[in-house]
Amino acid sequence: MGRLKMSSSKRVGGLKGVLHEVLSYKSAVIGVAILLFLIVLSVYTMVTIPLPEAIQAWRSSEAWSRNPRNAQPEWVEIFYGKKLPRTIIVPLKDADATKVLLEDGRLAASWTVYFNYEYDDFPSEIVMFFNSSYSEKPAVEFYWIRPDGEEVFLKKHVLRRPDDRLYLSNDLSLELRLEGLFENKVGGKPSFMVTVEKGLFAEYSLDPRVLKGRYGIRFETTLEKNDVLNAEVVIYGSVYGLAGTDHLRRPLLIGLLWGTPIAMSFGLTSAILTTVLSLIIGTISGWYGGKIDLVIQRIVEINAVLPFLPILIMLTTFYRIDLLIILLSVVVLSIFSLGIKGTRILVMQIKSYPYIEAAQAYGASNMRLILFYVIPKILPPVVPGMISSVPGFVFLEAGLSYLGLGDPFLPTWGKIINDAQTNGAFYKGMYYWVLEPAFMLILTSIAFALIGMALEKIVNPKLKEL
Amino acid sequence: MNSDTRLLELEDLRKWFEIRRGFLSSRVNYVKAVDGVTFSLEEGKAVSLVGESGSGKTTLGKTILRLYEPNGGRILFQGKDITHTKVKDLKWYRRMASLVQQDPFGAFASHFTVFRALEEPLLIHNTVKSREERAERVFKALEEVRLTPVEDFAYKYPHMLSGGQLQRVAIARAIILEPRLIVADEPVSMLDASVRIEILTLLRRLQERLRLGVIYITHDLATTRFFSESALIMYAGHVMEKASTREVLRNPLHPYTKALLIATPDPNPQNRSRFKEVPPGEPPALVDPPKNCRFSPRCPRAFDKCFKEEPPEFEAAPGHWVKCWLYERS
Questions:
Q1: Would you list the domain boundaries of chain A?
Q2: What percent of chain A has pLDDT over 70?
């Protein structure tokens, strides 16, 4: 009697009851927690970074010019045990310049800006961005002031255009001069290669050690009366944000964040659509039999021997497609799955049950019989399968993106891995580039797998013994 | 017989099932499960349909309910011809005629409560609009079949009830639309002996009180006396004998009926060692049967004519029809 009571209260609970029962499994609690986290993350992403903005930013290189290239995430410091450099932007504003009127009516201008450098490693790159307006191209001299007060002449540069950029790191003559200076000071050949960054930031010693302290940059130039010269010296670090950056200086975080709603919606939509449509097709096939059944079964058999991925690759190669079209193609190619055969047999079995005949005797229509008498019977074993099939579709989308066949505009996990692969991420030791999207993929699949497994146990209690 | 009171008339009703051999073969064989049945049932009367397994009695029941479409003959219900009416135009008939099945455990969708199972016919026919009225009808039906207190049963699932209780629910479902005809297809043969008589009594009382026409399909001659006014003995798709139940039991004429009666268990211990003469063999296969008396291979009294020609129905006594050459009036 107690057992009867229990099962009755369970049934009455409905959806709430199911949720309650699912949460009685520890694994499912973890799964639900991860799923909630992913949902919250998706919502947060969609609210804070609207999609058009995200796509725009992801596709432009200009937006990220002040970010370091291929920077690791900031938290890798834990593993290195030292403070890795962040990016420092040193602005030189026209208004801050000391200007002296010369006899010929021009202005002698000079700026000095200071910044602190307290990191344990050298910066990755140094670039000067100019933003000026002039009547005649000004020549600018740069001086480097080390923390000990020593002033080093860097270079004389004639601006080539108002928004000129000077890539100091690529300047070979500067590098050679710095190397000579270094050898003079140390009195020997240092044990490391004196790059521009090291030449500017290293202690004068044989080993590469960062000289911490307050650095300065001085600009000197002669300007016409109405000329304006602004500049930014960007000293790129080697770490960036939570997720690092890629070869185009884009923060991976944006791709990872936007990948979440894309992967979740793709996975869930295709899983639900595929399962529900297959279920309906299988039910129709089993219920009506005859010619309809014949046609559906032949389609299923033909579909079973058609290669899924090559067709998808062909579609994506020939047509300019977006995520929605990929989704629809995947659904169309998946609904006539072999699972239909299973559904059909179940339906044929149910169709012969006396209660169906009884319902026909009191006038239930085919539609009513299918919806209220047959589908509720075959639905329970289908739901866990549906949840468990979500990761498969998430991986499929990632796989297509990885093959370069995904939506060309959206930032997705698969595309990040694709970028990493084409840029030799593992070869160059940039593990984070691959591991971060892989982690997100695994997280998603674990969430759905855990929930799916718990549901499976509820639907099919025999599995509990395993 | 007054034609106004006629509920159901069958004229030479046939239900043959097609079997196709092979995928493209055009050859069609027929299983002649019901092959020329004629009888009529008056309002508020019960008829027993007796026969062994495979005699076509269940097929006949389902054909009467138009779960099958007949291949020949006519079905008249209250004078209306429903032989070939399209399923979608039969909705009124679904209200008038209902079914009680043999297996009470299979008769209900396991995901419906008793309440929902009883509500379904009302929902389908939309006879009762408001939910309160539907609940009233459901509870009333449960009271009719003595499942009280009704609240205890209404919200249970089928697996929580016993076979006898489920069969009561099945009867409640059969009467909830206030039909004129119930086809009870071996309603007690899957139940415990202890509850059979209760269910039959219930059905009989309801039949008398609601003036229902009942077609009681059974293989158990013993229960027919108790249940019905008239009886039909079926064998291999044919009606072999039809008369009032009393007449069939007291004065069986057809050799098959006699054999059936002999086979009925005899409660008298003094007869335990008496030899019972039961015809050998089995009912014939019904795939394209030959045109003769279908009982002839097993009949102890068969003669030449029996193997050659199918007998018509002879009226051996007033109201007592027998399909046997023995009763041909010379």
A1: 20-61+250-465, 74-236
A2: 95
Tokens of A349: 């079995």
Host H or E run for residue A184: helix A172-186
The CA distance from A17 to the nearest CA of chain B, in Å, is 15
In sequence order, which residues have a C-beta less than 8 Å from that of residue B27 and are 6 or more positions away?
B20, B21
Residue A458 has pLDDT above 90, yes or no: no
- B41 in a domain, yes or no? yes
Mean pLDDT to the nearest integer, B280-290? 80
Q: Is the CB of A363 less than 8 angstroms away from the CB of B65?
A: no
E-strand spans in chain B? Answer: 6-20, 28-42, 46-50, 72-77, 80-81, 97-100, 181-185, 213-218, 230-235, 238-244, 314-317, 320-322
Helix residue ranges, H only, A352-374: 354-361, 366-368
Question: Is the reported ipTM for this assembly greater than 0.95?
Answer: no
A368 touches chain B (CB under 8 A): yes
pLDDT at A266 over 70: yes
Range of the domain at B317: 3-265+279-327
| Mean pLDDT, rounded, of chain B | 89
Residue A112, amino acid:
T
**Coil, helix or strand at residue B24:** coil
pLDDT in tens, A205-224: 888 899 999 999 999 998 88
Q: Using an 8 Å Cβ cutoff, are A194 and A125 in contact?
A: no
Model confidence over B98-142: pLDDT tens digits? 999 999 999 999 889 999 999 999 999 988 888 999 999 999 999
Q: Does A111 reach chain B within 8 Å, measured CB to CB?
A: no
* Secondary structure tally for chain B: helices H, strands E: 11, 12
pLDDT of residue A6: 40
CB A194 within 8 A of CB A67: no
- Residue A235: how many CA atoms within 13 Å on its side-chain side? 23
Q: What's the pLDDT at B262?
A: 83
CB contact under 8 A, A364 and B124: yes
Whole-number Å distance between alpha carbons of B140 and B161 = 19
> In which band, very low, low, confident or very high, does the pLDDT at B3 lie, cut at 50, 70 and 90?
low
The CATH number linked to B126 is 3.40.50.300
Are A365 and B124 within 8 A, CB to CB? yes
Read off the pLDDT band of A265 (50, 70, 90).
very high
Judged by CB atoms within 8 Å, which residues 52-91 of B form the interface with A?
A: 62, 65, 67, 90-91
CATH T-level topology, domain A20-61+250-465: MetI-like fold (1.10.3720)
Is B273 inside any structural domain?
no
CATH of domain A74-236: 2.60.120
> Are A377 and B110 an interchain contact pair (Cβ–Cβ within 8 Å)?
yes
Burial (0-12, 13-18, 19+ Cβ within 10 Å), B185: buried
Predicted local distance difference test score (pLDDT) of residue A89: 93
What is the count of structural domains for chain B? 1
| Shortest Cα–Cα distance, A270 to chain B (Å) | 28
